[in-house]
Amino acid sequence: MASKEHMKAAIHAAFDAAVADGTSYTKVYAAEIKQKNFIVFRTTTVSNFAVGFRPGQTDLVIVPLDEKNGTITAGTPLTITDANRASVKKRDLQGRFVIKTTDGRTFRLSIIPSVPKLLAASYQLPVDQKEEYEAFTTLRDALVSA
């Protein structure tokens, strides 16, 4: 498995390649974990994202990420602005940041300062992002209070 520094650099590079002027954004890694329980078994799906924002602004860019053998590939970015943001919740029952768009999309994102290698075993990408996390919490709090 790639080191935390390598993984963080790969996430930032994928975001920068997918988003115009991507280097001007502060970026955090986020995971969306969905579980479905069935009578005999339970399935867990983990989706990885890079969330970009600019300090002092309320726009977000969410880029889906696909990781394979330490290589990160970016999907199509989604820009969330004041115009297409329906609602924001600081924490749901599982402690996730929830953002809904006017077109019906909902993101339930787990964003933490450091993803330990133990969680990387459950398909989250191992990264250290303490400074980016602090900047994100400032934005999150501004969105919730707006």
Tell me briefly what this model is.
The protein is an alpha+beta fold. 24% of the residues lie in helices and 37% in strands. It has three helices and eight strands; from the N terminus they run αββββββββαα.
Task: Write a structural description.
With 146 residues, this protein is α+β, with helices and mostly antiparallel strands. It has 3 helices and 8 strands. Strands 1, 2, 3, 4 and 5 form a 5-stranded antiparallel β-sheet that branches. The protein is globular and about 45 Å long. The model has no long low-confidence stretch (mean pLDDT 87).
Fill in the keyword field for this structure.
146 residues; alpha+beta; five-stranded antiparallel β-sheet; globular
Model regions low in confidence, pLDDT < 50 over at least 5 residues: none
Which structural category fits the helices and strands? alpha+beta
What is the CA-CA span between the terminal residues?
40 Å
Helices and strands, in N-to-C order?
Answer: HEEEEEEEEHH
Question: Share of helix among residues?
Answer: 10-25%
Estimated radius of gyration: 15 Å
Quick one: overall form? Answer: globular
Major sheet size, sense and barrel closure: 5 strands, antiparallel
Binned strand content: 35-45%
Total beta strands: 8
Q: Which SSEs are present, and which pair or pack?
A:
Layout: H1 4-18, E1 26-37, E2 42-53, E3 60-68, E4 71-74, E5 78-80, E6 85-89, E7 97-101, E8 106-109, H2 117-120, H3 130-145
Antiparallel strand pairs: 1-2, 2-3, 3-4, 3-5, 6-7, 7-8
